Sequence to fold (524 residues):
Amino acid sequence: MSSPLFRLLIPILVGIGALLFWEAAVTLGDVPKFVLPAPSVIGAALLENFGSLMSALWVTLRITLLAFALAVGGGVALAILFSQSRLVEMALFPYAIILQVTPVVAIAPLILIWVGFDNVNLALLILAWIVAFFPILSNTTLGLRSVDHNLMDLFTLYGATRWQRLWSLQLPAALPYILGGMKISGGLALIGAVVAEFVAGSGSGTGLAWRIIEAGNRLQVPTMFAALLLLSLLGIAIFFALTLVEHLALRRWHESAVNRGS
Amino acid sequence: MSTSPPAPDGPLLTLSGVGKAYNGAAPAVADVDLSIERGSFVSLVGPSGCGKSTLLRLIAGLLQPSHGSLDWEDGDRPDDLGFVFQDATLLPWASAFDNVYLPLKLKGVSRDEASGKVQEALARVGLGDVPDRLPRELSGGMRMRVSIARALVTEPPVLLMDEPFAALDEFTREKLDDDLLTLWRELGWTVIFVTHSVYESVYLSERILVMSTGSNGSAGPGQIADDIKIDAPYPRGLSFRQSPAYFDHCKAVSAALRDGDT
Fold:
């Protein structure tokens, strides 16, 4: 019943069933393709525009990955700073929250003005970074603080320096939290990159979001769906990549990744 | 039938009027006057909340006394006290070897240099053949052995133990009690052992300090109610555990506990 193959097969069968139903309903119901294109039509649009969609995918992917990398670097670094000084944390944490709760759509025009209209790529990067940054910061801060108190005492007894305590105790102990934050943040970086492109427009290359707007303006609904499909696949790929990283990093010791069976 | 080496001169540690109160609450430890002889095995026995763990942490320097003073024979507190917590308190991501290596690592000893000592410490607690296992791959008793190996790898003059075997089953506990006594006699430590088990304290110790909570469990004075000598010779084994003298000592300690609590 719950063999891995079965668990993989079930959602795939459901997906195929839904596609067949969709295809049949649209064909039999004579639904115009600018309202709801059949899966086969979407597939054809994907193949037809494959080259341009792939280059758009690459543009979006590049901004997503760069924003994600900067979010991880910046979030972990700031959290480490917070863990070393309560004063810095008290002073800065509220502003991190303000950055988080302000809708990125609302800041986009401002960012665009600041970086200049000939620097749209930078604006997109900043906006995606803002969205992706907070989960890393808050998770890492929590993780650095959640160290077993007895282990902290042990390090005190043996005269550990701040650096030793951070490197040999706090960071490894925070790793599950950091990786959890990265899983949230990876998806958010993609959402941020797409939303930013919707609002701020496209930079030197056209991203997937801009392709969707463009295709929408021309009522090329099958191309919109094709671009949408690629975005979903990208999101899924990011999620699985980060899940794999998490599994590899934690599988030997952390409760969340340890296989309880056998 | 040798006993532990007698104290050469003055006591190793003298506490004068030591007390500890947490933020306005009733004191956890109050006016403790006490001296500990070098090489002795001393137990602190009392019910939960009597302040015995607090007293141990004051001795370890993990807490500062609110008043009174602790005077060590050599002036300063030895900087390599061994401390064993109630839980094994191991780094979950590090192997048995690396957990035992930790105190030396924090002192700047390289892994290669430390290797011999670490292996020796593991062998002493009977874990010479599993240096690469992670804590989760060890049983509760084995984890506690790793913890003890970690405490003895720095060859500390004093070993402080905070209810170390309380979470283990009785069989494992008795085995560890015997192994601890063997190590103590071989290595000439001073051991201060906190426990809530009257039987364990009588079996292990030369001297038992009974602590009280004051009147019937209400937050109490945290003083030493009685100081009992157990003059049975070492090595102690099953014959001691089953001897009338053992039960007489247990009765005496139990009576002191009741007195201290009314």
Notes: The two ends of chain B are 39 Å apart (CA to CA). Strands of chain B lie at 13-20, 29-36, 41-45, 67-72, 82-84, 158-162, 190-195, 207-211, 224-229. The first strand of chain B starts at residue 13 and ends at 20.
